[in-house]
Sequence to fold (303 residues):
Amino acid sequence: MSNQKIRWGIAPIGWRNDDLPEIGKDNTLSHLLSDIVVAGFQGTEVGGFFPEAEVLNKELKLRNLKIAGQWFSSFLIRDGLKETSKAFHQHCAYLQEVNADVAVVSEQTYSIQGTDKNVFTEKPFFTDKEWNQLCQGLNELGKIAEQYNLSLVFHHHMGTGVQTLEEIDRLMENTDPNHVHLLYDTGHIYVSDGDYMRLLTKHINRIKHVHFKDVRDQQLAQCREKGESFLQSFLNGMFTVPGDGCIDFTDVYQMLLDHDYKGWIVIEAEQDPAIAHPLEYALIARKYIDETLLTLKKTEIVG
Fold:
């Protein structure tokens, strides 16, 4: 994959899902990592079933793979900074041991993403006081991440208090850009707002990690009409890999190139591996990347 400033990864969520551990439970770490090699990706993110750092590092070295980062559920609003910091230190220490680049943080206070609530109409909202607590806390977590040579990237997510562009704007405006960066997820912002370019255009300078997630419009409409939960929605095929849905990743990738993006682009699609064969879909994504995205060149921005 030609652009050396950009690393291409694929998330373990296509093989095994942390929110629903029973799906894909027979897919082992060796299976997952070997599939990633076959599909031609450079690395992955840490899944909930991954082993201790020493064991993981050996498996990675055998396959010449790297770790991009790992999800961290923060509860800054519910538990406060002191308690959250303890868990975050442990999280970052592990990531440092496996030579990761980012700590992916999502505020999970009041989150409905793991419940049976309607993800399209029942998302939580924060009070002004809670927003201040969250933003101040993230600034401090960002400083902790840097102690472990990591960047904190905040993950806007369906079913949480930071989901819409308006909410992401507020988070970006009230956090320190030196310590708090953004994870840009095409699928989550498209399902939330029906648009994926406005967020990218507005906050391109804060983005330090990217998830390429595609969406099937027909399934999205059905899930929205039925008022399904986040888990039900992805089990019913709302998400897929690039090249298999409605998102035009050429516009997204072109903008990343034009703004000299450096970092990981991780393919991520919550699907049931019993229905969407993980390697098959990894290869679909790789084919799309090779044939559609890697043909694009940086455009010189004038003025």
